[in-house]
Please model this.
Amino acid sequence: MAQPFPYTYYACDCYDSNNTTSSKRASQILAAAEEEDRTFDPRSPRSNYSLYPLEHLLYCEDCQQIRCPRCVLEETLNWYCPSCLFEVPSSVVKSDGNRCTRNCYNCPICTSPMTVNSLDTSNDNGPPYILACPYCHWSTVEIGIEFEKHTGISSQLARIANGGKPIPTQKERDKERERRKELGSRKRDGRDVLSHSEDSPSTDTERDDPPPSHDDVFSNLGAFYKAQIEAQTPSNPFSPHDITFSSPSAYNRIMNLYSNTSSKRNKRQKPAPMREAASLIEGLTVHNPSADAAAIERIKKEGWAATLSPAQKLTQINPNIRFESDLRPIATLLCTKRSKRCRSCRHILSKPESKITSTRYKIKLLALNHIPRLSIRALPSTATMPPPPSSSTQQPQFNYNALNSGIPTHFLLHLSNPLFDPIRVTLATPSTTPGKVQSRVTILCPQFEVGANTDVWDDALSSSLSPIKRGSIINADGQIEAGKIWDRGRNWTSVVIEVVPGFLKPVAGFGQQVDGADGEEELGEDEDVLEIPVFVRIEFEADVNAEERGLGDARGSKGERERREEAFWTVVGVGKIAGM
Amino acid sequence: MSSLGGERKVSASLSRSIRGTTPRLADLASTPESPRTPLLRSTSSLFGSPGGSFRTEDEYVVLEIGSRFVRGGFPGESTPRCTLSFGLEEQRRMGDYRQWDPEYGHKRRKRKRGEEWGQDYELYRLDLAQVDLGLVEDKFERAMREAYNKYFLLDTKPRRILLALPPKMPHSLMSTILDVLFGSFQAPSIMLMSSPVLSTVAAGLRSALVVDIGWAETLVTAVSEYREVHERRTTRAAKLLSEEMAKLLNAALANDVEDGSPKADVSFEEADEVLTRVGWCKSKPKSNRNTLYFPARTSPILEEFEDAVESPEPSVTIPFTRNTPPTEITVPFASLAKPAETSLFAPGTALNEFDDDELPLHHLIYRALLSLPMDVRRLCMSRIIITGGVSALPGLKTRILAEVEALVQQKGWDPVRSYGSASARHEQVLRQQREIFELRRQEGEDKVSESLDPDAPLPAGLQDPEEDAIDAKLAHLALRNGAPPSCSIGGTIRGVETLGAWAGASLVAQQRIRGIVEIERERYLQHGLQGANREKEVSVVPQRQSMGPGVVRGAGERASWTLGVWA
Ligand SMILES: [Zn+2]
Ligand SMILES: [Zn+2]
Ligand SMILES: [Zn+2]
Ligand SMILES: [Zn+2]
Model:
């Protein structure tokens, strides 16, 4: 699918073998038993999660099994910015988050990397600076943000809100909150507590302010809960963890302890029951219909172009926005280098070199060094017929994107062996492909041998392999004879598979049921793709501990051989069936 | 009726009415004094959030799971590090790069045969008969792998998980999710908290009526002192809404094409994008328009466009780049409010024509309020939290609140409805009278009730003597305890904004508050969900501080665990 035809996917069956709960186990065992003789269905939505190109798979030599991204455990080795290739220490990742804190930003419209440009027209590239997208030309000018320096963009941006207003730091937020609280309580104390005009402390002072930002509210809520919890648990003020004077609450508590001049409602005497937030500075936001009305007006006036697509919103740090003017440049996400371990035996399967710029691996146990590679390609149509007199004429390219329904077509299944031992191969496939469009499939020679992956030198030296005469498997009627391989080389063998592509629309009398409603329906995405599940079983004899050959100690294992067997499902994508 | 006044009595009266049949130990959970839990260490970061983080040994990852999204991030941060969806592109095979193909980007995606609207975009659905749990596991596992590898970027230290889940999630679905988190992501323990409670926390409240307009259903949950006390649902939610939008767009596109060409069938993405970009909702209920502004109006057709008398009629041009050929259509702005109107409020249908699971939102909310005990209702009606993806639709919150207000005005909280028989009604009146008398006697010169009268007189339907009395009582108590009077607001319809369940979970984890349901890895791996205590809630006595029965703060191992609301 979406890979160029033809292609092969390999299935890792870990998804039904590494489950955890007992509740599930029983049902899974039943399901597995049932599945025993069921073929792999590449149309099932689950198959998308277990099929991988061979290059994506690792191999655990201890478990003697394929390992897919799902059955490995990953460990982060280091963090770096993919844009500036700066390595970020883990402590910084922890404190500053998962994004580059230098000058690396992506465009919030098109995600291209942005550049720092000068708005200075006098040619010396002086301030002010902006972040601009070289691809779609969006820039921070559109959200009213300019920078004084061309370096340290992150720290500058963190302090400027869209439109140019400063964003308060955490400390400033806390201070402002305290100031307002103070103001509120003074006002309250100045009046009769039960007077008519009594209002929540916030409302008069905050009525004219713009609505608080998401971060403001969150910060207010956090402070409110912290204060509530602390008010409820007046612990020993000298408790060792709690004495830091930087914490305002601890400070207040100590002040209370030494001066008993505190307010008439002394909270410390008996913990007040926890209560809800009472005002904006405590994080309470009462629904305000005017915000709704303003948004509606704005959509009406500015239309589609002023609004954001779901994808654009989701890439924002704060996705709860609606308009283009709310966008922020997106700091580049850091990447990691990770090692991979086998989930069941914990052996390391892959480990990259730690240098950021290196793409090499210290360890990488690829499945393609352990698992035969299966591939499919069209058999040149001439081959099934007597060879044409002049071989010089160019054959037209086989069109994998237009297979002909109902016409038997021959393909070659090519199997190459990466192992140092010869293997016996058994292939199996369902006689008709699963799915709505049923194609008939026959492997003409399902059992065969493939030579060992000996050195090329050995190959050259031993000429024992006699080339197969292709003519010999085509019988007198020009038919390909079953049970014979097509061709063979040093460590590969190819066999013929006959495919009769199915019909996209049901044809009466061709095996498919034409039942009214169903027959009328259009085909879904990829239903015209011809994919064949092929079960591959290999058997071979290998040296015991063959994997440890590299360790140099071959004592005792010399000459000792063991029989081994591996089996797995593959899916070969043959092509697309042409409509008629 | 016992005497009133004193903080203990109030909480007792609240919990008595909430508790229902079985008394729960958790009702007593307000044990104040305890050894201090370790200090909150303050951190500064780009995400600049207040407070602190956990000790290193119990660092948390905060996850929220919904039927179409997973959000994940860290405690104390105001927004999640990632919000992952389950679209078609998320479900492709490895090595399938077609989404990057520019040509493919312009193709409209077809719905698979036999699949419901948007089914491909769901992580799960509650109707288990239609769920392949294996596929749920596949999808969830892939999304979590993306979250951990691309966004969390953690070191190798295992992280505990605070998991926000919808209440009443079926156990097999929970097992599937827990399997992945314990199995593939090695979580040492997972704390479960229910989304409505967390939405309440993220609104700064302790009690609220949480209206979560989700994908397949809208869930109304009454939360009292951090505990779910009542729940109602309706299928009027995002799915219906986006289907209505698709119908509207298909009709508009049909006008656009020449005869003979195939009928347009917009995809889920297209409908969803139009809805989130330019969809809206009229904020005034029709009943108000009729009775208050246009009492003499008779023509129903004109009335539809009552607010749209501007000329030229405002319109919006919507591009359809995935149409063949790409096109754009211009639709009247007013029409973009219709899908919300029909799908969520169903104005043209009589109430008795609805099944129980398809009540319009305002009726659902009204009924939920009606079935609450009086004192809880009083608090909840002034703390209506509207959340969920669709709640961001401009005008919707205002509209829902106005509709509920109109219903209350029209119907009040007529006890006859809730008590049924005439004799019960008489008893009720008598009881009320005694309560009021008792209250007046106790509070004498305080005159609290007057001081708390809202500026505008209450509409007749809202003037409920019993609730006035409780208002006064609670307000007075609150004042005595030093709580600002706004903490006791009640009896009127009021909406309160929430930062959402994820932010609530982030706050809870930041303050080191523990939930009732905490599952240790080893126990889960041995017994699965069956290992949970049969009791709905275990004793919270050995636990330390608490913010209320639903959430408990403190450290220490638990001898047994329970599934709480999910039991
Ligand atoms: Zn696997
Ligand atoms: Zn960078
Ligand atoms: Zn751009
Ligand atoms: Zn292994």
Q: What stands out?
A: Chain A has twelve helices and 22 strands.
